[in-house]
Amino acid sequence: MPSVDIRPTRIELIKTKKRIKLAQRGLDLLKMKRSSLVLEFFNISRQVKGMRENLRQEVGDAIQSVKMAEVIEGPMMMETVAYMSANQKVDSGVKNVMGVKIPELTMSYSQTVLSNVYRTISVPVSINDSIRKFERVFQSIIEIAEKENSMRKLLHEIENTKRRSNAIENILIPELTKTAKIIRMHLDEIERDTFATLKFIKKKMERKEGAGEVV
């Protein structure tokens, strides 16, 4: 803060000290927020790691189940069931995680002749098992995509919070502290000048009084 903009008054000093306290409180809140965001980021990261490991196993099991169903029921039956199966649809919404807006994905199915009840009764067990396993694979992929997107959003917010806290800690607070110091120095100098002036006036008055008594 340039010294030409500083008004060396007690009111300005009080205001500057209040701004320092406010900036310090804001800095503390930003650091707390950043710590919470980092904890949430690593928590989701651990979840994604475990989910990815499970997904590999789920994909392998699903592919193996399709091969087994094709051997047991034949390609024609597989194609017939696939034709009657529902199309999966992914809808997106928004949820709030510590002030960060994160997309929330939900999966739904369109209406089809092949309902859950009909599938259980009429579809061969091997094919039905394959359908269930691939539905689980698709659900896992959606969940992983949602969490990875959350991680990107959290990481972006962590960086923004870090920049803001660094600006307050390394620029704003030092400038305000310097301003308060300059004002304090000016006030002290004014006090010294005032004291010296009063002392000079007092001595001058004492000399006049002394001269009057002599006369």
UniProtKB/TrEMBL annotation:
The UniProt entry's coiled-coil ranges are 144-171
Q: How does it assemble?
A: Has multiple subunits with at least A(3), B(3), C, D, E, F, H, I and proteolipid K(x).
Q: Name one Pfam family in it.
A: ATP-synt_D
List, in alphabetical order, the Gene Ontology terms for molecular function in this entry: ATP binding; proton-transporting ATP synthase activity, rotational mechanism; proton-transporting ATPase activity, rotational mechanism
Swiss-Prot/TrEMBL keywords: ATP synthesis, Cell membrane, Coiled coil, Hydrogen ion transport, Ion transport, Membrane, Transport
Name recorded for this polypeptide: A-type ATP synthase subunit D
A GO cellular component annotation in the UniProt record? plasma membrane
As for subcellular location, the record says: Cell membrane
InterPro entries for the chain: V_ATPase_D (IPR002699)
Q: What does this protein do?
A: Component of the A-type ATP synthase that produces ATP from ADP in the presence of a proton gradient across the membrane.
Species classification:
Archaea, Methanobacteriati, Thermoplasmatota, Thermoplasmata, Thermoplasmatales
**Can you cite a GO biological process for this protein?**
proton motive force-driven plasma membrane ATP synthesis
Family, per entry: Belongs to the V-ATPase D subunit family.
PANTHER family xref list: V-TYPE ATP SYNTHASE SUBUNIT D (PTHR11671)
Annotated membrane topology is: Peripheral membrane protein
